[in-house]
Task: inverse folding
């Protein structure tokens, strides 16, 4: 059987009502064999995550070899829902470009990457950035809040990625701006969410919750 542990799809696919459809493997599939012998399956386009036992893996293999899909089979339904298999005539690259352009030119959602500082206390050997002691000025913070307040009446979603350097080294800036974003979002009924990329080694400056 197939167990869909997590499904975080842009647009969940639906299996056809009638059988006989030809499917192919998604080019965005990634598989890892677990110690139990089961297959951990991840689709990087859909966000689908699943565990396939021997029966589920056999069914996946059969479908990608051309066996017709059975819409009444729950394993087949799961493989389609997670986009691990896609219709033979489905162009995944064209679909990906459509998603990209839709997000790029949408006027209802705004995504912003903010670096409150480019300073860092780690020094990864693979890092290409030149770090220096710095922090976002209050004037720049005020401008960010002003721009968001101007855009908010026309937005439905606002997403912030806190980046650096090490953003937790300017945690007061993150807190101040986050509070301001939340207030503007609440007034305008905008869905606000955020993520933070941290490399911090010191427990005292790691803040997992915004």
Result:
């Amino acid at each position: 059987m197939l167990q869909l542990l997590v499904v975080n799809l842009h647009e969940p696919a639906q299996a056809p009502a009638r059988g006989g459809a030809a499917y192919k493997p998604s080019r965005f599939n990634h598989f890892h064999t677990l110690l139990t012998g089961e297959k951990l399956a991840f689709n990087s386009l859909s966000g689908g995550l699943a565990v396939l036992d021997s029966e589920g893996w056999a069914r996946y293999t059969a479908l990608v070899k051309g066996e017709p899909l059975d819409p009444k089979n729950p394993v087949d339904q799961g493989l389609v829902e997670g986009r691990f298999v896609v219709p033979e005539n489905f162009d995944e690259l064209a679909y990906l470009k459509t998603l990209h352009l839709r997000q790029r030119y949408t006027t209802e959602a705004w995504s912003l990457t903010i670096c409150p500082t480019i300073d860092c206390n780690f020094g990864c050997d693979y890092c290409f950035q030149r770090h220096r002691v710095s922090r976002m000025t209050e004037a720049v913070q005020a401008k960010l809040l002003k721009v968001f307040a101007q855009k908010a009446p026309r937005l439905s979603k606002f997403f912030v990625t806190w980046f650096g350097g090490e953003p937790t080294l300017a945690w007061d800036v993150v807190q101040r701006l986050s509070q301001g974003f939340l207030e503007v979002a609440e007034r305008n009924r905008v869905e606000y969410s955020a993520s933070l990329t941290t490399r911090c080694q010191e427990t005292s400056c790691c803040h997992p919750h915004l």
Notes: Residues 22 and 68 are 5 Å apart (CA to CA). The radius of gyration is 22 Å. Confidence is low (pLDDT under 50) at residues 201-210.
